[in-house]
Amino acid sequence: MRQIYPFVLFIISFVACVPQKEVIYFQDDIEDKYIDTEYNIAKNRQIIQPFDEVYIEVISTDREGTNFLQQQQRGGIYNTTTPEGLSIISYRVDEYGNVNLPVVGKVKLSGKSIEEAADYMEKQLEDYLYQPSVKINFVNKSITLVGYVSRPGRYYYSSDHINIFQALGMAGDIQEFGNRTEVVIVREDENNTTKAVVDLTTEKIFDSPYYYLRSNDIVYIKPLKKRRWGFDSFPYALLMSSITTLILVMEYVKN
Predict the structure, then answer these.
(1) How far apart are alpha carbons 150 and 188 in whole angstroms?
(2) Averaged pLDDT, 130-143
(3) Has residue 217 got a pLDDT over 80?
(4) N vs C: which end of the chain shows fewer Cβ within 10 Å?
(5) Does residue 124 sit in the same domain as residue 99?
(6) CATH number for the domain including 69?
(7) Dist CA 224 CA 58 (whole Å)
(8) How many independent structural domains does the chain possess?
(9) What CATH number corresponds to the domain at position 149?
(10) What InterPro entries does this protein map onto (predicted)?
C-alpha cells in the first residue's frame, strides 16, 4: 500500500505541470547557444487605409499660414493623451480613402505612406499657402489581445511598428496554460479578413509576415489541453490529503 502513494504523487505531478518546452519562446536547434544569429526582418512602411485616423499639421512661411488647419478648426481644450482627445483633433479617412480638410476640401490619402501623403498634400496646398510644410502621423493605432494573456484588452501604441512580443508584453505576457505554439492572428485589410496561426516557440516567427503586427490586429491565445481539462484549478491539496488519510486508515486496520 505504501508503494501506491509515490506512484499517485508522480502521476499527479506529471499531468499538472506544463512542460518547459511549451513555454519557451523562439527555440532553435543550434548546439552552441552563444552563437549570434542575425535575421533580416523587413519593416514595411505603414500605408494609410480607409477608417484610419491621422493627425495633420500644416505650417507655412505666410503669417496667416501658421498652424493653418488649427485655425480652421473649432477652439477648445482637449486631453490629447487619451484616444478620445486624439480623435477630436485628428481626421478620419472615409470609406473612399479621403480626408475632408477645411477650405481645401476632400483629399485622397489612402494607399500612400504618411511621407507620400505629406508630399501630396503640400502640392495641393500650394494654391492656398506659400511654401506649405505638412506633417502627418497616425493616431489611435491599436491591437487587441484576448484569450490566455494576463491582461486581455485593447492596447494603443504610437510607434511606427510593433512586433508580437512587444504586444504580449503590454498585456502581461501569455499565462502558464496559454498555447504558445498556435497563436491566432486576425487581420483586416480593407474589405478582406485573414486568419493566421503562428508558433512563438520557434525562431521561424522572425520570418513570418505576422511578426510585426498592424493596427487593428487581433491576437488570440488559445488554452492548452491541460487547461481545458481544468488541471490548473484542480484541488491537489485536498486530493493528496484524502489519499494520505486513506493510506493511514488502511495501515491502521491492517495492523
Answers:
(1) 25
(2) 90
(3) yes
(4) C
(5) yes
(6) 3.30.1950.10
(7) 52
(8) 3
(9) 3.10.560.10
(10) Poly_export, Poly_export_N
pLDDT range class, residue 128, cuts 50, 70, 90: confident
- Bridge partners of 212, per DSSP, are 163
**Residue 102: per-residue pLDDT:** 82
Query: Do 148 and 28 share a structural domain?
Result: yes
Contact 205, 211 (CB under 8 A): yes
Beta strand 218-223 with 178-189 is antiparallel
**Judging by beta carbons within 10 Å of its beta carbon (0-12, 13-18, 19+), is residue 20 exposed, middle or buried?**
exposed
Query: Which residues have a Cβ under 8 Å from the Cβ of 72 and sit 6 or more positions away?
Result: 102, 103
Residues 241, 167: contact at Cβ < 8 Å? no
State the cell numbers at 62.
505666410
Q: Which of 115, 138, 161 is the last residue of a domain?
A: 138
Q: Cβ distance 55 to 137 under 8 Å?
A: yes
Environment class of residue 10 by beta-carbon count within 10 Å: exposed (0-12), middle (13-18) or buried (19+)? Answer: exposed
Q: Residue 191: give the domain boundaries.
A: 20-44+141-223
108 and 149 in one domain? Answer: no
Could you tell me if 206 and 236 lie in one domain?
Answer: no
Residues in the chain: 255
Q: What CA–CA distances, in Å, run from 151 to 73, 147, 155, 219, 221?
A: 38, 9, 10, 13, 12
Q: Same domain, yes or no, for 120 and 157?
A: no
210 and 84: one domain?
no
